[in-house]
Every structure is written in structure tokens, then in C-alpha cells.
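Can anyone check this?
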Amino acid sequence: MFNKILIAADGSDHSIRCAEKALHLGEQNPQARFTVVYAIDGQTSKEDILHHYDKTIVNEKRRQRLEPIINLLEQKGVTYVVEFIHGEPGPAIVEFANKGEYDLIVVGSRGLNALQEMVLGSVSHKIAKRVLAPVMIVK
């Protein structure tokens, strides 16, 4: 049974589907706790700051990207936290997940940055190779 479930999210349709699957798995355990992690790479951070000068607005916009996932979690009434981490998504999520000793990592097969995926390899692949916990990749 999974007690600590990490949902890697970026606001894409794939990350919403992975949150739905994680919730389905977590429903089997009333003590399941969820962590939604959103990795902010250098390019995203620069773009956010250029478009919105105020850090408060930047943080609100980032949270809005995750709103569909947060709404799902709240509708189910589960225990959850949202974490924003900085760094290249693959390695940053791996480090975060390994430090958190999660029982399951759930990640979408694709995200918002298709160009980076094509050139550097998918974030989900990097996570699956390096995280110590089981990883579920949701299509």
C-alpha cells in the first residue's frame, strides 16, 4: 500500500492525468499523503520574471498552473502539500523524491516543454532511471 505519493506536475494534460491515477491508487489507503512537486528550470524562471515583475504575481501564476490538480485533491479530501523546487526538472525531481523517501512517484509521460524533451530526453525517463522508489509513468 502506498502511504507517501509524489505527483510530478507542470500543469500539462499529462500531469493532470497522472494526478488522477495517483488519487485512484491513494483512495485505497485513507492515510495516503500526496506531494505535488513542480520543478522550475532556469528558462521558465526567467520567462516568469520577465512577464510578471512582482514575485507575488509570479508565485500566484505558478500555483494557477497547478490549479486543476489542486482542485482534484481538494475534491477527494486527501492530505496534500504543493512544493515548488528549482532546477532542471529531471534531476531536481529525482533529488527531491529520493530525499523524501516516497512510496511511489507518479509522473506524466510528456509535459509542457516538448522541445527540451526531444533534445535532452524525457523527464519521466530520467526520473524512472534514477529515483529509488517505484515510478509510474502515465500516458
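Reply from J.R.: I decoded it. Residues 115-120 have pLDDT under 50 and may be disordered.
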